[in-house]
Write a structure and sequence with these properties.
It contains nine helices and 19 strands. It is 22% helix and 27% strand.
Length: 387
């Protein structure tokens, strides 16, 4: 059963999440703010950003969101005191997440997206957002007309989202949520994989998957389960139409040392015929034509190991990147990834100096001023497609 998504007005609906029971999902149109527009070209820019705990200020039944509530919220003090882990108990007790601080964080995200670029990406994928309400306010702040938010079983209430404007050849078609299931997730559920389907320029089918896989505190098997689910859905899409373009973005929480590797051993394997995706960062590194622009080593910095990691990825189906090594932009036909367009966005103002290295400047959730607040512990990643 398939539920048609309505994007105009302020509507709520129920949809089927893979093969599980109906769950509530939210997707409403946000009032546009005339802040910026993307330059007119025959293409799309797609960005992903883990915005780090974009919570609203309202408690949701069954969710452990007590840290990100105001001090005077009924029940917060008791729930904070009951947390077993000292670090998280202290964080909960000391975080006064007020409405004014929520709106400050929205403006800090806007700074990242627009301060130096001066235009919106055509499509913006997000991780670590709590609710339809928080994403609706962010869409208004940035200037997006439309957004889709997942409704995941994650214990903290963490979700993923996709923001976009229906213009310049981008036409919304439908959306689905795919729930990551298995014995491991009965006691520790994770985020759904969000799929948003488009038609580009009236003829090119495109599915964008937004991912936020289980963290490194979970075993590799948990991420392998998410990877296998994504692969099965991609297989289905391409069996329906071999020209269907696939873009999978997100925080995959996968390190290169994991064996088997949820990305390299399955989704983007160079040796398996069942692999349908190309890692755009790897493609960039291997392409000699891209060497004129220095690429940051990663999007997330592990202070403990003093090492960069590529947790945030953009994966594109091979039918959209197969000829990049030799093709010029004039010879590319259909909807294709633009050569050398992948970037890890790292303007100086969103970084801080750590032992001589510029790393992402994380967020201070008790800050009341922009110069004290920070941004996120992740850097955005982006790339372009043209047709």
């Amino acid at each position: 059963m398939k539920t048609k998504l309505k994007l105009l007005g302020f509507l709520s609906l129920l949809m089927l999440v893979s093969s599980i029971d109906f769950v509530q999902a939210s997707a409403r149109g946000a009032a546009a703010v005339p802040t910026a527009t993307t330059p007119i070209t025959s293409g799309l820019e797609i960005m992903f950003y883990n915005v780090l705990n974009l919570f609203d200020t309202v408690h949701r039944d069954g969710k452990d969101d007590w840290t990100f509530l105001p001090f005077d919220y009924t029940g917060k003090e008791e729930h904070c005191a009951a947390i077993n882990v000292p670090y998280y108990r202290k964080e909960c007790k000391e975080t006064n997440w007020t409405e004014s601080r929520f709106y400050l964080k929205l403006n800090q995200i806007k700074e990242v997206i627009l301060r130096e670029r001066h235009y919106l990406p055509d499509v913006l994928g997000l991780a670590e957002v709590e609710s339809e309400e928080s994403v609706r306010e962010l869409a208004r702040t940035l200037g997006y007309d439309h957004y889709v938010v997942s409704d995941s079983p994650d214990e903290r209430g963490i979700n993923v989202a996709l923001l976009f404007n229906e213009k310049r050849g981008l036409q919304y078609v439908d959306y689905l949520e795919h729930r990551v299931e298995g014995d491991w997730f009965d006691s520790k559920p994770t985020r759904n994989i969000l799929e948003v389907q488009f038609k580009v320029a009236g003829e090119y089918p495109l599915s964008i998957f937004v991912n936020h896989w289980p963290s490194q505190s979970n075993p590799t098997d948990a991420r392998m389960t998410a990877s296998k689910l994504l692969q099965s859905v991609i297989t289905e899409r391409l069996s329906e139409n071999s020209q269907h373009r696939i873009v999978s973005i997100g925080d995959f929480n996968t390190t290169p040392t994991e064996k088997p590797n949820p990305i390299d051993s399955l989704l983007a394997s160079k040796s398996m015929k069942s692999a349908y995706l190309v890692d755009m960062q790897e493609s960039y590194i291997r392409n000699s034509r891209c060497n004129q622009r220095i690429l940051n080593p990663g999007s997330y910095y592990y202070k403990k190991d003093r090492a960069w990691n590529r947790l945030d990825k953009i994966l594109v189906s091979t039918n959209a990147v197969v000829a990049l090594a030799t093709a010029s932009t004039k010879t590319i036909k259909g909807l294709m990834a633009t050569p050398c367009s992948f970037a890890i966005y790292k303007p100086d103002f969103i970084t801080t100096n750590y032992r001589g290295i510029k790393i992402p400047r994380g967020y201070n959730f008790n800050a009341d001023e922009a110069n004290e607040a920070g941004y996120s512990d992740h850097l955005p990643v982006l790339f372009k497609m043209q047709y």
